Amino acid sequence: MPRRGPSTTTFAPQTLTCRILGCRFRFGADERELRWWCQRGCPSGGSKTFPSAGAAQRMARALDREPRGPADILAMLGGTVHREKRPPRGPRED
Questions:
Q1: Is 20 helix (H, G, I), strand (E, B) or coil?
Q2: In this structure, what are the phi and psi dihedrals at residue 19, rounded to the nearest 5 degrees?
Q3: Has this prediction a pTM greater than 0.70?
Q4: Which whole-number Å values give the CA distances from 51 to 32, 35, 59, in the listed order?
Q5: CA distance 73 to 83
Q6: Mean pLDDT of successive 10-residue stretches along the chain, which has 94 residues
Q7: Torsion (CA) 26, 21, 67, 7 in degrees, nearest 10
Q8: How far is CA 38 from CA 35, 80, 92, in A?
Q9: Could you tell me the strand order of the sheet in which 9-10 lies?
Q10: What is the pLDDT of residue 79?
C-alpha cells in the first residue's frame, strides 16, 4: 500500500516509564492544527490540520481526557464499587 505523504507523527518512547506503561498523550489545538505530545517527556507526538479552528478545538477537547481508574471502569460496567455506611440500628427487641 503506498504512503499518502510525509508523516507528522513521531512515536519514539525513550523514557523508561513510557516503555513500560506507554505514553500518556495530551492534546491541544492551535488555530486549525491539532497537536499531541507525551506528558511524560519523551519525544513522541504529532499534529494534524483540520478544516476549521472549531473542529480542531472540539477534537482536542474530546481526546484530552485523564485516564480512568479501575474503580471508574467497574462502575461503568454496573459493578458495586463501594457501599454507603448505614446508620446504626437500635437494640433488637425479641
A1: helix
A2: -70, -35
A3: no
A4: 7, 14, 12
A5: 16
A6: 60 76 87 90 88 94 76 59 67 67
A7: 30
A8: 11, 34, 60
A9: 9-10, 45-49, 33-38, 25-30
A10: 54
Contact (Cβ atoms closer than 8 angstroms) between residue 81 and residue 75: yes
Residue 26 pairs with which residues in a beta bridge? 37
Tell me the three cell numbers of residue 34: 491539532
Residue 65 has a pLDDT of: 80
C-alpha to C-alpha distances, 94 to 67, 90, 91, nearest whole angstrom:
52, 12, 10
**What would the grid cell of residue 69 be?**
481508574
Grid cell for residue 53: 479552528
**Torsion 40-43-48-54 (CA) sign:** positive
pLDDT at 81 (0 to 100): 52
